[in-house]
Specification:
Blueprint (H helix, E strand, L loop, with lengths): L1 H26 L2 H26 L4 H26 L6 H7 L1 H16 L1
């Protein structure tokens, strides 16, 4: 009797886990979020390369020149790319999260312009 109860409980748990996974696959936003992350990967990589370049500069004059000539124009380009990417989606929750990306770049541009 004890083995039957244990087996039954185990079976119910496995069915619930399988059901949850299937539910997330078909009704969740996993695929949408994965697609979004793949499409924004290029923007993220470009931003990280810019930050790495900025971190490698030790001379304040060279840093100011880099910021003015490369960093700010590149960030403006990232803003336009991220705003264009917005047109690919209609999910309101994802769009609300995505709105933070160009906003963060704009704030970074303002901060760098203030620094100059």
């Amino acid at each position: 009797m004890n083995k039957k109860v244990t087996f039954s409980i185990g079976t119910v748990i496995m069915v619930l886990i399988g059901g949850y996974v299937l539910y997330q696959t078909f009704f969740g936003k996993t695929a949408l979020m994965t697609t979004y992350l793949e499409e924004t990967e290029g923007i993220t990589d470009e931003y990280l390369m810019l930050i790495q370049e900025e971190m490698d500069i030790d001379d304040p004059e060279e840093l100011a020149l880099f910021t003015e000539e490369k960093l700010i124009p590149s960030l403006e380009q990232l803003v336009s790319q991220s705003e264009e990417l917005r047109n690919n989606y209609s999910n309101e929750e994802l769009l609300n999260v995505h709105a933070m990306l160009p906003q963060a770049f704009k704030l970074l541009i303002e901060a760098n312009e203030s620094w100059l």
